[in-house]
Amino acid sequence: MNKKNINKNSRVAIVTGGTKNIGLAVCKALLKNNIKVAIVGSNDDSIKNTFNQSEIAIFKESIVKGYVCDLSNTTNIKDLVTEVSNDFGGIDIIINSAGILDLSKVEETSIEKWNETMAINLTAPFFLVQNALTFLKKSSLPRIINIASNAGRMGGYANGMSYTASKGGLISLTYGLARQLAKWDITVNCVAPGTIESDMLESRDPHIKNKLLENFPLRRFGDCDEVSEAVMYFVSEKSSFTTGAVLDVNGGLFTG
Prior knowledge:
By secondary structure, this protein is α/β, with parallel strands linked by helices. It has a single domain, classed as NAD(P)-binding Rossmann-like Domain (Rossmann fold), CATH 3.40.50. The chain has helices at 21-32, 44-51, 54-57, 74-88, 111-138, 150-154, 161-181, 199-202, 206-213, 224-235, and strands at residues 12-16, 36-41, 64-68, 93-96, 143-147, 187-193, 246-249. The radius of gyration is 17 Å and the shape is globular. The two termini are 29 Å apart. The model has no long low-confidence stretch (mean pLDDT 91).
């Protein structure tokens, strides 16, 4: 374990996709655990709506702050890291939660949709880590947590191939980064949710939702707080000997 002095009350986390669903649940959990949070959203309205929620609004700007960033542009990611580090004085935790869903059939998938999905779901997580690496190396308790998907584990059931490939790539990226960053005691882990009650689920056809539900041994979908609890294990000091792991939170849908 890293022997640096650990001030757990001064840690700073960047959470992409932090304005809704799993990302928002993670932000709330981090704040409850005295971790400062940079909430990254795709537009001003999403940030505003997030900070209208009482569980976020009660915290001062020195504890939590919102950032608008188009993650599909790597230049924006570099600027985001600079802004967050200037505002909070460092970066200790990266949580890559932002993601978009593609439901296109194989024969109908466009190159535009493929590239867009890859940019948000796979390229952005890598370049966020790359740009934040200087700060993570200095951290006393550095953590990277990627939010993948059951689709990346076993291909999924009713999603497009760009989504499946991007989430599978994110899992492989987790493995590779875990090996390469271990020399700095930076742990890199992944949470792979099954279908979660979220905006993504609401975008699906009701018939498809019912068919999906039949595949879950627990006979229900998950909720965002159940995923955030898994994330918080990887964030914690107790997970210091865990890296390159994928934690499945999916009601038994994927059993290896």
